[in-house]
From TrEMBL:
GO terms for biological process: fatty acid biosynthetic process; secondary metabolite biosynthetic process. This is Ketoreductase (KR) domain-containing protein. InterPro entries: NAD(P)-bd_dom_sf, PKS_KR, PKS_NRPS_Biosynth_Enz. Transmembrane segments: none annotated. Residues 32-111 form the Ketoreductase (KR) domain.
Amino acid sequence: MGLIDWTVAPNTALPVRISRLDSKPMFKADKTYWVVGMSRALGLALADWMIDAGVKTLILTSRWPGISTDWLTNHARKGVKVVVLPCDVADEAALHAAHAQIIRRHPRCHGPFEIYQYLK
């Protein structure tokens, strides 16, 4: 066991490496990412960011997914497969059915995200 001395003389410069969160690949192009909820503007902004960061297969699940065909077409032109899958995650059977469909038809699911927004 060692001892760490955290004291530093005043005005001593310490080496620091600063890097952006997205300076390294965050997502794998050969995996599927499943976003549950957030199929409106904020969720689509997150999806855009994920796609820009390397996601090639994205599943968007929501009770009421109102995603424009223009948004979907735009990403399809870039080689991104975005699948909109209506599902109420409060319904366990529906959630299992959605999961079964995802693992049957798409590359391995590498990152499920459940995100919801409540504004009052």
